[in-house]
Each structure stands twice: as C-alpha cells, then as structure tokens.
TrEMBL record, chain B:
Residue ranges that the Swiss-Prot or TrEMBL entry lists as coiled coil: none
Name of the protein in question: Spermidine/putrescine import ATP-binding protein PotA
Subunit note: The complex is composed of two ATP-binding proteins (PotA), two transmembrane proteins (PotB and PotC) and a solute-binding protein (PotD).
Entry keyword Transport: yes
Enzyme Commission code: 7.6.2.11
Species for this entry: Gemmobacter aquaticus
PROSITE patterns, per the entry: ABC_TRANSPORTER_1, ABC_TRANSPORTER_2, BC
Domain ABC transporter stretches: 11-241
Family per record: Belongs to the ABC transporter superfamily. Spermidine/putrescine importer (TC 3.A.1.11.1) family.
One of the protein's GO biological processes: putrescine transport
Length: 295, 367
C-alpha cells in the first residue's frame, strides 16, 4: 500500500469502498423501510374520506387517537401484555442462561444452546396453534381436568385470556431472552465470583453483588428484544385471544383495512412506534449506566 | 532471613491429597507454615502449587488429608468464612465498582459506622500507595494499580493469612522488582502470614523466609532460600533454582566424618556429611558446583584452594557480570561460571586458556 493514501481493494478510498459495500443494504433499507415509513408519516397527517386521502397537513388524526377511548385502552393493554411477557420471559430465561453458563461443561454448552433453539424449527403460527390445542376451551387441559372430574365444565380463565397470551408469547421469545443473558454471563471472569466469596460473601450474596450487576447488559438486551416485538404482536391476540382481546396491532389492522381509514391507522401506528421508541431509549440509557466500567 | 522456630503454626498440611478424576494433583503434602512467615510455593506450571494455595483459601476440596489454619480443621469450612484473603493472578477487581467500592467490598458486615469504614478504606489505599484514587473507576487502572487495589481489598479485612497467586507475573520487569520490595516491606509492617505462589525462582529467593519447591504434586524441598540455593536436595531442585554444574563422581570411601569421592575433571576430595544430598533418587553419584563458586584466575592470582584448567567456549557479557562456558581438559560438558566485572579485570575471548580456582567446600554430592 502506498504511504499516505488509503486505497482499498476496489481502487477507491476506504470510505468509498465502505459505502460501496453497504450500498445494497442501504438501498434495500431505503426503499423498503424508510420510504414506507415516510409514507405512513405523511398518511397520518392527512384526512381519509370516501373520496380517498386528501387534505393539507393536520394533527386531527393524532388528536383522535390520543383522546379516543378505544385506542388508549388498546395501547394500554398492549403495553401491559408486553411488559408482563417481558417480565415473565426474562425471569424464566435468566435461570436457564445461568444454568447453561455456570453448570454445563464448556464443551457441552453449544449443544445446550442448540437444544434451546429446537422449538424454533417450527413456525410461530404452528406453535400458537399448539398452545391453542393445550389451552383452548376443549383443549388438553380442560378436557383432562374434566375427565378426571376435578372440574365440571371447561375453565374459561385459561383460554381467551391475557394470561394465556402471556404464556404463549413468553414461550415464543424464550430463546431470544436466554441468548443475550447467556453471553453476558459467559463474559464474567470466574475469579470475580471467587473474589466475592473470598471477601466474605456467601454464594447468594456474591450473585447479588457481582454476577447480577455484571450480567445486567444482557438482561437489558433481553428486555428490549422481547418487549419491542411483543408490543406490536398481531397473531397471538387474534388466535389465542380469540379476537376478543385485541391489541394495538389488531386495532391498526381493523382501522386500516376494515374501516379503510389509512390516515387514522397511520396515526395509531406512529403513536405506537413513538411509545416503543421512548421505552427503548429509557432502557438503553439504563444499559449505558451498567456498561460503564466494563470493557 | 532468619526465622525463630518458637512462632506458632499458622497452617498445617497433613498428608493432603487431591485428585481431579484420575489425575493426582497433590500427592501427600506435609508442611507447616509459621505465623508471620513469608512463605513461597515454588515450582514449574502444573506442579500443584496453585492447587495447594486454593485448598487454603477453600476454593478446592481436598480428596484426603487435613488442612489446619490456626489449629482449626478447615474441612467443611467454606471460603467466605475462612480467615484468609487472596490476591488473584488476574487481580479480580470488580469492573462495575469504583476503587473504594472494591476496597470496601468485604466490609459489608463490619459493624463500624459508614464514616469509620470510609476512613479504613482511605487508610488501606494510602498503605498501598493509592491515596486519592478512591473515586476512580476500577477499569481505568493500570496493571500495577489493580494489584495494589487487590492488596488493599484483602488487607483491609485483616486476614490471618494473605494468599498471593502469582501476583507479579503480569507486571513488567521494573514494576515487578519494585513490587517485590514493596510486598516485603508491607509484610513486615502488617505482620500477616503471606503465602506466595510463583514459578520465578529469583522472586521466591528474594522475598521468602522459607520456600517449598514443588514438582508433580509433591514438595521436593522445604527450606530457607540460602539452604535451598547452597544445599539443594536433588539435582532437579538444583536445576530449578538457578544454574548448577554437574560432574560424575565415584565414591571411594565413606564414614561418619564424610565421603571421599573422585569427580571427573576435579579429582579427589572429601565432602562433609552436610554436603551429601539425597540417596532416595539414586541419580548416580554426581557432584554439583554453582557458577559463582568457580573463579577464573588471571596472571599473578593464586588459587585459594584448588585449580583446574580448561578452554573458554562461550562468553556472554551482561554489563555487571560476564558468563563463561569453560570446558575442562577431557570433560564431556562445559562448565558455566560467572565473574563479576570489576575495573582492571579483562574479559576473556573464546578459545582462551583459563585457569579456574574452586573449593571442595562449595560442592555438594548428589547420590
């Protein structure tokens, strides 16, 4: 390489080569992500009538969304469900990640991680149907309990409930939560745990004072990975909730396609996105605090 | 370096064995470490020295035998309640805490007030030369500073025994030598029993009151540095601690006053019983002489005891010292010897004839 000039292998400067390398992705992202997103933003500021989208820029749709009883209730339900799913998933994923990281022999760890991914070999839709078979009105649990004579008629609390939605989603996102927590636990220098005990703390206290804080970046990553997609989940409320417990995504679908009001639907979508962005930024800031002091 | 024997025992190993599956890591360790002693476990990697240290800390269970600390059996005593603290090889500084939070980590259960604890932390930092570093993030420290934090963090708890697992191996040479001196001073100041694990024989000789040399899970010799150097128990120990020249020897006669031998190249000599080592290893009879006990005699100098003749084969100039390889007339192996470079003393060239002065009193016989 000549001195003073940074020529890359394609002949241009390194910066130009970099741009060249990312350009297919960049073009793809621009056309298929940024452009539709921009369209949604524009839609949300227009008025949809029978005659089609029209009108100058107006916040009318947003005012309708933020003051509308249904939209607020559904947004709140979405937030509650995804917060509960996140909590349950991360709480259940942590012990699994901990077990694999601390109690499985080094050469068996990749096998364990592989086993954890097995449920993902079937599509999410099929797994949701399987949960429906288990939890449904005439499902495995209800018919089992009835044939044992424990209950007289099918329990309704286990089907079409928030609880069964949380269970289904928590199972669906388990591996996505286990992996980042596992990685952060793997990065912890094991002599730190011995040091904790050496300095007089029990194993439990050492976990509390050393392991947990050092694994927080993984926990926060898991929270984001679970929280962001579940808030916009569409399939689970439709199938497990039986359409009786719609979340914000179902509402957007109904407004966009059934009521054919693209402007209002876009405004709901933008609002949901803004809320997700807000929560994510809060967690990212939290993560920064925990990442401080770690390489 | 002298050590009075009246001091009480701090640590006792009684026939300690440790197996990892089929691997026999510790093979019957018997040793006693006195209170207030600076004790070193020295040996090549894989000899079991770190395992032995970790049995004191409570990080390794022993397969059989007894470990006593301050006359108490440590079986079933977990690491967090043992009266020991450790400076880890990696220092194990908590990366999510500041320097003072690291040093104060073990004070949670201390009944003192918050202010008194803060004062104790500040004093501990001052003791290791890190005054004013308390608020710094632990990850922003250099290797030497991390080690000082690890020391302060352990010593603030006033343990009966401080365990040091190769604490200097990650430092550069200058820093290492400086820390050796500081550790010796610190140990004298606090009076705590220090147990150091090291593979560096020079470090062990410089710092320790007594040293246990370990090979393959066993203690090969336990002695003070001078005995270890001048009277190594076996050829293996002699080879590990510095350099030694060996020459095959034939035993001519022996009685209570000593052994008369004929050593190849050196001739006949009589060695007193304390110069005769081993017998258990049956390495064949060999005499050993340290490089500095052989002296090149220049013109006009007379041997104080005996003389031998040879040819210079290699010269390595070290500034303050010159190392020579000299082959005695008719010998199979050249001898390594070291000469201090004093003003007016020439450095010989390769091929030069050399007259060497030596004394049988500096020799040892391995049987």
């Amino acid at each position: 390489m000549e001195q003073g000039s940074k020529k890359g292998r394609f002949g241009g400067s390194e910066a130009a080569n970099g741009l060249l390398l990312i350009s297919p992705t960049a073009i793809y992202a621009t056309l298929l992500l940024a452009a539709p997103l921009f369209a949604v933003v524009v839609y949300s500021l227009m008025v949809d009538s029978k005659a089609g989208l029209a009108g100058g820029l107006t916040f009318q749709n947003y005012i309708e969304v933020w003051t509308g009883r249904i939209d607020r209730a559904l947004m709140l339900r979405s937030l509650t469900v995804s917060a509960m799913v996140t909590l349950v998933t991360v709480l259940l994923a942590y012990p699994v990640a901990y077990f694999v990281s601390f109690h499985i022999r080094q050469d068996r760890k990749s096998l364990w991680l592989f086993l954890i991914t097995i449920p993902f070999w079937t599509s999410y839709l099929i797994r949701v149907f399987l949960w429906k078979v288990i939890l449904g009105y005439n499902g495995v649990i209800n018919s089992g309990l009835m044939s044992l004579g424990i209950i007289g008629e099918p329990l309704t609390i286990i089907n079409y409930s928030i609880g069964s939605m949380i269970m289904t989603l928590a199972h669906a996102y388990a591996a996505f939560a286990i992996l980042p927590i596992f990685v952060s636990l793997e990065k912890i220098d094991r002599s730190l745990l011995e040091a904790g005990q050496d300095l007089g703390e029990s194993k439990l206290r050492t976990f509390w004072r050393v392991t947990l804080p050092l694994s927080m970046p993984g926990v926060i990553a898991a929270v984001l990975i679970v929280f962001i997609p579940t808030i916009g989940d569409y399939v689970t409320p439709e199938l497990i909730g039986g359409g009786k417990l719609p979340m914000i995504a179902n509402r957007i679908e109904a407004v966009m396609l059934k009521q054919n009001d693209k402007a209002l639907g876009s405004a709901i979508a933008m609002t949901a996105m803004a809320i997700v962005a807000l929560v994510s930024v809060a967690f990212l800031l939290l993560n920064k605090r925990f990442l401080k002091g770690q390489k | 370096m002298t050590f009075s024997a009246e001091k009480p025992n701090m640590i006792e190993f009684r026939d300690v064995h440790k197996y990892y599956g089929d691997y026999h890591a510790l093979r019957g360790i018997n040793a006693t470490i006195k209170a207030g002693e600076f004790f070193s476990l020295l040996g090549p990697s894989g000899c079991g020295k770190t395992t032995l240290l970790r049995t004191i800390a409570g990080f390794e269970d022993i397969s059989s035998g007894v470990v006593l600390i301050d006359s108490k059996d440590m079986a079933n005593v977990p690491a967090n309640v043992r009266p020991t603290n450790m400076v880890f090889q990696s220092y194990a500084i908590f990366p999510h805490l500041t320097v003072e939070e690291n040093v104060g980590f073990g004070l949670r259960k201390d009944p003192r007030s918050k202010d008194e604890k803060a004062k104790a932390v500040a004093e501990a930092l001052e003791m290791v030369g890190l005054k004013g570093y308390g608020k710094r993030a632990a990850h922003a420290l250099s290797g030497g500073q991390r080690q000082r934090v690890a020391l302060a963090r352990a010593l603030i708890l006033k343990p009966k025994v401080l365990l040091l697992d190769e604490p200097l191996s990650a430092l550069d040479k200058k820093m290492r030598e400086q820390m050796q001196v500081e550790l010796i001073k610190l140990q004298r100041q606090v009076g705590i029993t220090f147990i150091l694990v090291t593979h560096d024989q020079e470090e062990a000789l410089v710092m320790s009151d007594r040293i246990a040399v370990m090979f393959e899970g066993q203690i090969a010799q336990l002695a003070d540095p001078e005995t270890l150097y001048r009277r190594p128990a076996s050829r293996k120990v002699a080879d590990f601690i510095g350099t030694m020249n060996f020459a095959p020897a034939a035993v001519l006669s022996e009685d209570a006053s000593g052994v008369e031998v004929d050593a190849q190249g050196f001739g006949r000599m009589t060695l007193s019983p304390d110069q005769v080592m081993g017998g258990a290893t049956s390495e064949g009879n060999t005499i050993g002489l340290r490089p500095e006990t052989l002296t090149i005699l220049f013109d006009g100098q007379n041997a104080t005891d005996r003389e031998v003749f040879g040819t210079v084969e290699e010269v390595v100039y070290y500034g303050d010292m010159t190392y020579y390889d000299v082959r005695l007339d008719g010998a199979a192996e050249p001898l390594r010897l070291s000469m201090r470079n004093v003003p007016g003393r020439p450095v010989l060239d390769i091929g030069a004839k050399a007259r060497l002065g030596w004394s049988p009193s500096a020799a040892v016989l391995f049987r």
